[in-house]
Write a structure and sequence with these properties.
This protein has 328 residues and is mainly α. It has 11 helices and 8 strands.
């Protein structure tokens, strides 16, 4: 009930602010800005994640640029690939492998090994991050630290008192696992396809034309960028496959399924039979309608608003854009 309260427009405004600030700091090579998209989305998601979840709790790149001091003792560091052998969790990079392990059907042994190690470190870091908020449970003598974000406070307040110790860190972790890799994956897949097919520049021209016509940044982004993004996500879902565990015996078409069996659904092949005009089924079905689909994602609006903003900030860059080896 907390994640689904965030409107797409709100998520868009938050992400656009951070994305613009990061892009303004790009270095120039030979008079042309070099935009490594994977690095851009990684840094942007660290900023956005800190805004919503309070994680990472270490200073982000923008905060460091603003004069903040590095904090090597923080529980979770911000963005970027960590140094080889580093034991500290980094956000969002160390969220990816546990998320892949959770959502990918029959993960390989290599994925399981990496995800288990990084997931355990991340869990320890998250438990340490939430510990100061649990110590007084709202009734102790110690004053609780300032909340790192409104969303974190709302999650805390939405849980029952006897759920806090077991559930608070888990709910935050679940939000990170569902939000960050999904946004990162869809951003990189969509931009890669658009750059290869030439759609990126057609989209840029259409967006800039909409802005020149008098539409505000949000109106232009949601009328021009979002429809193409929804179509791209429906054609190339991330993840490509999902799995469900049967809770009872049933017939799936003419195939008998027994309770406890795992059902693997290939979303890419299923996409060929669906409308590409909207993306709700990519998020597990319609969460906001009635009846609510059981496994639908409550953070769909948060994810879509963030994605549209990351693309809008990139598309509105002045000058001409063209791909380089680092773009895809």
């Amino acid at each position: 009930a907390v994640f689904n309260s965030i409107a797409e427009e709100t998520a868009f405004a938050v992400a656009l602010k951070f994305a613009r600030m990061l892009l303004q700091g790009l270095g120039e090579v030979g008079g042309q800005a070099t935009i490594p998209l994977a690095r851009y989305v990684d840094l942007a998601l660290a900023e956005i994640s800190k805004h919503w979840f309070g994680v990472p709790d270490a200073p982000t790149l923008l905060e460091l640029m603003g004069g903040a001091e590095p904090d090597p003792d923080a529980h979770i560091q911000a963005g970027g690939e960590p140094p080889a052998g580093a034991a500290t969790s980094h956000c969002p990079v160390h969220v990816n492998s546990p998320s892949r392990f959770v959502f990918q059907p029959q993960p390989t042994a290599a994925v399981e090994a990496i995800a288990s190690a990084e997931g355990q470190r991340l869990k320890v870091a998250m438990d340490a991050f939430v510990a100061p908020f649990l110590e007084n449970g709202g009734s102790g003598s110690r004053e609780r630290p300032e909340w790192p974000s409104d969303l974190t406070r709302q999650i805390f307040e939405a849980l029952e008192q006897d759920e806090l110790e077991d559930e608070f860190a888990s709910v935050l972790m679940g939000g990170l696992l569902g939000f960050l890799p999904t946004v990162q994956g869809n951003f990189l897949v969509s931009t890669r396809d658009w750059l290869r097919q030439g759609d990126f520049w057609r989209l840029q021209n259409a967006y800039l034309a909409a802005r020149r016509s008098g539409l505000g940044e949000g109106e232009a982004a949601f009328s021009v960028i979002r429809p193409l993004l929804a179509e791209s996500m429906a054609r190339r879902p991330v993840p490509a496959m999902i799995h469900r565990r049967a809770t009872r015996d049933l017939m799936l078409a003419d195939v008998p399924v027994r309770e406890g069996q795992t059902i693997v659904v290939g979303l890419v092949s299923a996409a060929a039979e669906r409308s590409f005009a909207e993306e709700s089924w990519v998020f597990g079905g319609e969460y906001y309608g009635s009846p609510r689909v059981t496994h639908a994602c409550p953070g769909r609006k948060l994810g879509m608003g963030t994605l549209v903003a990351l693309l809008a900030a990139l598309i509105e860059l002045p000058g001409s854009l063209r791909p380089s080896p680092s773009s895809a």
